[in-house]
Design goal:
By secondary structure, the protein is mainly alpha-helical. Helix 11 crosses helix 13 and helix 11 runs antiparallel to helix 15. The chain has three domains: 61 residues; 77 residues; 135 residues, no CATH class. The strands form four sheets. It has a three-stranded antiparallel beta sheet. A two-stranded antiparallel ribbon has the order 1-3. A two-stranded antiparallel sheet has the order 2-7.
């Protein structure tokens, strides 16, 4: 009887020991990565410090650059769009990077960061009307006929588009056109509003596209910007080659000004980016046709098995755009395109009609011929 009790006690002690060993091993494994110390009591190798930003050359990511400039995400995107920040363009639509020298330049400007924030300050309809001393209804009418153009938008809780306007531009308009802020609205304005005119989305599109056009010299990038305002059906009518359409989608630059994170926001932006007025659609088709003719003369779109893929010529986001009004006009200086045949290496920047216009050009833009 005593022998059995001793055996049971020894067996229980062994089980407790194994359980303690298992628990001890688990605790040691848990403590290692967190505390960085060996369970035996010796200090293990210290974990390397986590850098605040991964250095790549002398440039910073957009997130890090916004932190350095003490700007919110929307403010930073708007500053890029307006050309207030010189940024390196990223390939295939990726977010641009900002060089350290540009960050230091902006931080050294007088009044930083308040002065920079003031330049990207925006106002909605109610705040904008209050700034101009008019009613929200009159402010909306002025915006609908194009007196003031929105620079950004957001969706409210009802998923309705709320347009935003630069405060600096509103104040400049009030100083330039005081007669439109008081008294009876002009007859032409009333006629346009009664006809249902609303150019807010159109002017927002033109502002985004034209500002990027003023900074882009590569003809395929310029064609991609023109194509971004056309829906897939219209684009297929203009560009019947699927490889060219794929290349246009690949070289489309990052549309500075913000990409909504939410699904409804992305859907709303996708709809707002498409031209919906007949004369606007025709304008984009004409410009796309001319840019495509020029691009095809300089280099073809890459195809599978054709060797090294062509890439868009690098551009700088913001450098050429500072002070530009986004008209889409060529910058004036001649531009050189890599890979261009002899005789067409130096061409004026934007609205250049190629010497060899393809047959059926009017048919391609929907005018017959």
């Amino acid at each position: 009887m005593a022998t059995r009790e001793v055996t049971r006690a020894r067996t229980a002690d062994g089980r407790r020991g194994r359980a303690e060993t298992r628990d001890g091993t688990r605790r040691a494994g848990d403590a290692g990565p967190v505390g960085g110390a060996d369970e035996a009591g010796g200090a293990g190798p210290a974990d390397p410090p986590v850098p605040k930003a991964v250095a790549r050359g002398s440039s910073l990511s957009s997130v890090r650059a916004a932190q350095e400039l003490e700007l919110k995400r929307g403010e930073f995107e708007l500053a890029l769009h307006l050309g207030l920040i010189d940024a390196e363009s990223a390939p295939e639509g990726r977010r641009p990077r900002v060089r350290r020298e540009e960050i230091d330049r902006l931080r050294a400007t007088p009044g930083f960061p308040a002065a920079l924030r003031d330049r990207v300050r925006t106002a909605g309809t109610a705040e904008g009307a209050a700034l101009l001393g008019i009613s929200p209804v009159r402010f909306t009418g002025l915006a609908r006929i194009g007196c003031v153009s929105p620079v950004a938008f957001y969706l409210n809780r009802y998923r309705a588009v709320v347009w935003l306007y630069l405060v600096d531009e509103l104040l400049a308009f009030a100083e330039k056109e005081p007669e439109l802020l008081a008294g009876r609205s002009p007859a032409g304005m009333r006629v346009m509003l009664e006809a249902g005119t609303d150019w807010r989305a159109r002017n927002w599109r033109a502002r985004r596209i034209d500002r990027l056009l003023s900074r882009s010299q590569d003809p395929w990038v310029r064609a991609a910007l023109q194509a971004s305002a056309l829906d897939p059906v219209q684009l297929a009518e203009m560009v019947d080659d699927p490889y060219e359409r794929a290349y246009l989608a690949r070289v489309l630059p990052y549309l500075a000004g913000g990409r909504p994170v939410s699904v409804p926001g992305r859907e709303a932006m996708g709809q707002l980016m498409l031209a919906d007025d007949p004369d606007e659609i025709l304008w984009r088709r004409v410009n796309l046709s001319m840019e495509l003719d020029l691009a095809r003369e300089i280099r073809p779109a890459p195809r599978p098995g054709a060797g090294t893929a062509f890439r868009a010529a690098p551009t700088t986001v913001g450098a050429a755009g500072r002070g530009d009004r986004g008209t889409g006009s060529p910058p004036g200086a001649s531009s050189s395109f890599p890979g261009a045949p002899e005789g067409v290496r130096s061409l004026p920047g934007a609205s250049v009609v190629p010497s060899r216009v393809r047959r059926g050009w009017l048919a391609r833009i929907g005018l017959g011929g």
